[in-house]
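Quick one: co-fold with zinc ion.
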Amino acid sequence: MSIATINTQPIEGQKPGTSGLRKKTKVFMGPHYLENFVQAIFNGIGGVDGKTLVLGGDGRYFNDRAAQVILRMAAANGAARIITGQGALLSTPAASHLIRKRGTDGGIIMSASHNPGGPEEDFGVKFNTPNGGPAPEEVTERIFRETEILANYRILEARDVDLDTIGTTQLGEMAVEVVDPVAEYRLLMAALFDFEAIRALFASGFTMRFDAMHAVTGPYAKAILESDLGARPGTVLNGTPLPDFGGGHPDPNPVWAKALVDLVMGGDAPDFAAASDGDGDRNMILGRGIYVTPSDSLAVLAANAHLAPGYAAGLKGVARSMPTSRAVDRVAEKLGIEAFETPTGWKFFGNLLDAGRATLCGEESAGTGSDHVREKDGLWAVLLWLNILAVKRKGVAELLKAHWQEYGRDYYSRHDYEAVDADAAKALMEELKSSASGLPGRSFAGLEVTAIDEFNYDDPIDRSHSSAQGLRIFFKAGSRAVLRLSGTGTVGATLRIYMEKLERDPASQSQDAQAALADVIKAVQEIVKLKAHTERSEPDVKT
Ligand code: G1P
Ligand code: ZN
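Sure, here it is.
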């Protein structure tokens, strides 16, 4: 086996976004594309000589081929060991856990998360640091700079490594350790939650459906929910990971997991339902007749986490991304703990978790997690809900309504306008920014604007500064709208508009969210001249 040094040239646009580098699969499969980026990661982190890395992905199309390339490159760059899941599979939270548990130098995760997979769809690669979390901006910047000056990459000339058999083999000088992707994660979950209580809940006839969306969580959910916790066989739907996720978007929201939503709203609804995304870090929570918004889920989990053994000592603090509703802030206030507001993207929670300032974190985009790993964690959120339900012995709807009565309800919705012309989307944002000072005091759709600002963030731990993280419009009665452009899309621009309105009166808390937010929606559309800029009046996705 010999090491080849292949001459290459910088490839434009290899800039990691909200969560690693995401591109069309065909782009990743193009000449040198993956290799350049992987070499840039290695260079950007100061080389991998003698290092141990975790490698895994969500099983999407090209996962297996990309894994072989990354292994050969790691070997050629002097890595000592790669730990990978069988079949090169690892859910993102399981990868984060392995990175931490094994004290490694970080890991490479192959995933485009909730984006569809297949030769015509998306692929992605991201680097996680030794704390198990997504590389912070300072690291992704270094990686990006390497992509701009790269002249060659190193790769071992070797045959494919057998990744289907558990055990350790050699690739040149490097050890390749293939592990059961579920084993360590399963132990971690058993340590955090009261499995006994959840088993008793299922034994009492409690019914559940978990939609793995043909993505990576299938094997995890089957092992934990059905084998360990005694949920009925068949609880896990679409449990076999497929390279194209069965042709769907593995995104657990009311649009892409509509069948599950229809199930809980119908006559034959289970007591509890949930779904996870492509790489297993997102979650959607449903109860009989009810959809729990991720913002509400975070608030309910924060208020009740102490019921699970892993959190019995209470929470140190909570954190949410800026566009996430402020529901969890009021829980934190009552608990007398800190609440942080961070930019969008899980990487911004890492410092707070490492410093022990936050225990639970969440994003409105179906991401919830805790300090057990450094990624959001779909199945973890589902298990925490189950633990709470097992202790409270209340239905999801009952629990949520009681929560709203106590804390108020934040009507919440996100509207996505996808594949908008990138220049038009930019112009819309720029115009709002430049007109911001003239808008307070004026009314739109009957709502008076009180302030408009751009969200900037100073990390309280390392003092790093992140600017231009979204525009916020505040209205008189306390409603809020946030606008930002997606950093994960692969076609044109995706404009996200987040809207929320607090309702404290229990008698008015059972409206449909879109209806309750109708005036905020209308006001934003008028303020930003949405139709004129985007030629759209209806979003592609409403969550
Ligand atoms: C989206 C979500 C964000 C999440 C990220 C990765 O990013 O909005 O909350 O952290 O995916 O899952 P965006 O496309 O908005 O930049
Ligand atoms: Zn994901």
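If it helps, The chain is about 35% helix and 25% strand.
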